[in-house]
């Protein structure tokens, strides 16, 4: 009986350790984006993005829209970029989330702010929308 109790406790502990919270799963998705774009890993970026994602920004006072597929094409396998990203915030309700990410480009002296909308699709958190802007610095 003692062995059965130990086995049940061990299985319960393992089950809990494998179950990630939604915030942990969202963080993992955002890190696929942040690290994939920095390290030149299009496959990691694809893991983060929903296939129908678009990116939105303002260029010359006009809305600019880029498909996620085109954006991923800017990154070549193993071609590292000097991008330093960090997650600023994550807000989650049920199967929808909003995240704010900062990407620093020291070489270009720009700090980008990305606003990501995420949805839990078939049990996986995916970035479905990205709006971004940047501010130059010295």
Strand content: 35-45%
Q: Classify the helix fraction into a percent range.
A: 25-40%
The strands making up the biggest β-sheet line up spatially as 2-1-6-5-4-3
The radius of gyration is 19 Å
Number of strands: 6
Q: How many strands, what sense, and barrel or not for the largest sheet?
A: 6 strands, mixed
- Seen as an oligomer or otherwise, the chain set is single chain
Which regions have little confidence, pLDDT < 50, spanning 5+ residues?
A: 7-17
Structural class: alpha+beta
> What order do the SSEs take from the amino end to the carboxyl end, as H and E?
HHHEEHEEEE
Put simply, the count of helices is: 4
Shape annotation: globular
Distance between the termini: 68 Å
Instruction: Tell me, rounded to a whole number, the average pLDDT.
Output: 90
What does this structure look like?
The chain has about 140 residues and is an alpha+beta fold. Helix content is about 35%, strand content about 45%. It has helices spanning about 1-20, 20-40, 40-50, 70-75, and strands at about 50-60, 60-65, 85-95, 95-105, 110-120, 125-135. Strands 2-1-6-5-4-3 form a 6-stranded mixed beta sheet. Strand 5 and strand 6 (about 125-135) form a beta hairpin. About 20% of the residues are buried.
Short description:
The chain is of the alpha+beta class and 138 residues long. The protein has helices spanning 2-18, 22-39, 42-48, 68-73, and strands at residues 49-59, 62-67, 84-93, 96-105, 110-121, 124-136. The protein is built from 4 helices and 6 strands.
